Model the fold of this input.
Amino acid sequence: MTVMAERTSQMSVEEFEEIALGAPETVTLEFINGRIEVKQVADGDHNTIVQWLARRCMQSRPDLDLYQGQGLRVGAYRQGRARPDGVLAPEAHFAGHGEWADPAGALLVIEVTSYDSDSDNRDRREKPSAYGEAGIPAYLLIDRESCTVTVHSNADREAGGYRDTHTVKFGEKVIVPDPVGIELDTESLKNYVR
Done:
């Protein structure tokens, strides 16, 4: 029988929020699974991908907004803090919310991988678990290293993560299921990788 040690949190959520408030603009801090994560500042290709996705979402679903930089309370008991590259939600949904909003109402979170050493653990493992636990219906991962787009759907709050995962190579079409209900042609993403 394998027994896994329970991870001890580095600090309280309140302590993290105080540190994040004073962080320089050159880094983005997140608090996932009880530890501070540092996201690399986005490069031009990363930002272009997020804008590409924003245009596709607006064309397909003009009733939704793609929020960039909106912090979310995620994970078990909302004790994590994530700042996805994009959050798709109904128009004006986050008006009046603070820096770290409740994820209720978010339909989709988007992450675009960075070329840093922690992207594998952060974007491919920890974020799907935290976003699924938070009950966010879908997670879209645009992976510039593997040149793939992965749609995680059917959130599983109890187990953490998502029940369904579908991955396509750049150049193929992928459907983000309801409640988003859009199809993305990923051909142009080939232009934004190293």
Summary: The longest helix spans residues 44-60. The longest strand covers residues 148-155. Confidence is low (pLDDT under 50) at residues 1-6. The chain has one domain: 41-192.
